[in-house]
Design brief:
Blueprint (H helix, E strand, L loop, with lengths): L13 H17 L14 E2 L7 E2 L6 E6 H7 L4 H5 L5 E5 L7 E5 L7 E5 L2 E3 L19 E6 L3 H4 L6 E6 L6 E11 L3 E12 L2 E15 L4 E2 L8 E2 L4 E17 L2 E21 L7 E21 L4 E17 L3 E18 L2 E16 L8 E18 L2 E12 L3 E13 L4 E12 L3 H5 L10 E14 L2 E19 L11 E21 L2 E14 L12 E11 L2 E10 L2 E2 L7 E2 L2 E11 L4 E8 L18 E8 L3
Parallel strand pairs: 6-9
Antiparallel strand pairs: 1-2, 3-8, 4-5, 6-7, 8-9, 10-11, 10-35, 11-12, 12-15, 13-14, 15-16, 16-17, 17-18, 18-19, 19-20, 20-21, 21-22, 22-23, 23-24, 24-25, 25-26, 26-27, 27-28, 28-29, 29-30, 30-33, 31-32, 33-34, 34-35
Length: 638
Amino acid sequence: MISHVCFSSGRAPARRVRLACLPLALACAFGGLVHAQEAPALSETVVTANRTPQALSELVGDVSVVDRQAIERSGATGVADVLARLPGIEISRNGGVGNTTSLFIRGAETRFTAVYLDGVRIDSQSTGGAGWEGIPLSQIDRIEVLRGPAAAVYGSDAIGGVIQLFTRRGEEGVRPYAGIGIGSKGLRRIEGGVSGKSGLFDYSFGVAHEESKGFNVQPVDKRTPSKDGFTSPDRDGYHSTSGNVKLGFQLTPDQRLDATLLTSDTTAGYDATVSYRTKLPIQFRDDEANNTLRTAGLTWSSKWNDIYSTRLQVTDSQTVYKTQPSFYRTETNLRGYLFQNEFRFGPHLVTATFERREDALVNAATTSAKLLSRDRSQDALSLGYGFVQGPHSLQLHARHDKDSEFGGKTTGSAAYGYAITPALRFTASAGTAFRVPTLYQRFSEYGVSTLRPETSQNVELGMNYAQADTTAGIVVYRNRVRNLINFVGTATGCASSFGCYTNVNRATLQGATLSASQRFGDVTLRASFDVQDPRDTATGNLLARRSKRHGTVGADWRVAGWTLGAEVQASSQRYDDAANTVKLGGYTLLNLSASTKITRDLNLVARLDNVGNKDYQYARLYANAGRTAYVGLKWTPQ
């Protein structure tokens, strides 16, 4: 995995200059140290930055890549846990795996990240943003993360960044695989599949099941009428089953069809309801949350000649979230149409993309709310220009979205990179972005129909070094968000006595990221460090559940056929609420790992996370798992 970085330009106040200088000082202190995993070759291509294949060495964006090997070595059970180890990313979760999870790129709201799975858009018209707890890590083969606004390429939502997830793709021959794993808290994991390629046809099939007895996510519930609270005796486990199919057919050397299907069903326990008796003890009911994800996509890629190529795509996604016995059910269906045109003239690339997105929300009636069934659509035209020649790289994008509810919105971006030397590269970029309110935020019992889209303006400046076994990068950014939507007690046009969503604030997301890696023979060092200041501009308060400093330092050592790893994750204190009255303590975690080939076809992975059994919280009243261990075996015939 590798990251390219950018800095913001222009005159900065003293406070921001001091913030920018810190990573520069750290760069000198770290020397060649790291960032998240071993860096791939700069000739590797990614598609997330501009929706077209592009070599990492030519990117002007801030991108990280995680491959399957890194995912398997991580021993993680959730996609968010893998992403939390990357620069610029934090997570928040209400308990264990399977419970509500938020992801913050550079301090941006979780709904400000556009998420795609095999090119299929995943989003919720209820809360906004992808339901990370429902995405099956077992089916993911590769992850690309773009930090920074990308609405001029992807449209609504991409204020903080874009994350693309990819499942396996068949390669030459027949390649079956099978894996089992066991861990703490009664964790059991099993997976299997086969991929391959024969002539013009390639395929990949995979299934997986995972379950855990879990732990008590709310060991002390301070909402109960007791001075000291009461211990909830139940364990909040989870179980997840997933499967995917990916098929490809090379019609001619220049014509290809791809089809993808994925399904995932995750159920997790949580403590949400307390039933009172006339006498103690208090009983905690075992509430359950179920997340169902379905995605499907069909793509026709064509290269008509050396100049002109196209991509035609139709996608569908369905996300369903429901709870029992405290009944709630919300369903989002999202259909997308994409027609992308590429024109290549030597070092020049021109793109013209037509896109349509259709969203539909159905919230079932409950004892306190009526049935909500609404839909909307967006039509867009996006134009792009890329130029790469010698030391120069240039990317320009403009996009106009026409929303069925809000009318037209135009966004743009410009990015430039200059290779000072073959190893040292400077980048600068600026862009605008937006997100339209969800249908729930506008039309539910807590909705206000006059909500305005959230908008942002971002600037970045960066420096990246990559040569042989050394990589290092620094990024400084400032992203100003307007019309920020929050839930407040009173609002104009609000029909609920409990409160409503409203455009109340502005926010400034500014910070700096240092990342680096260095290999010394059989030892690879890696680290990243973020200093950020995500604040509500009106109140001056930090945005909830986001720290001012967080980072990761790790090392991998290859010895006697083993790969031994140690990693430290650290975060400063955060606040659980917008008023900054409830503190969440900082934490430092030590994780250890080991992997080896037992035979040519059999791999062993072992991990011990949170070695010191640190008691910490991502969200108030919700515990984390404590010290956990995992051992897994993977059979992949060579």
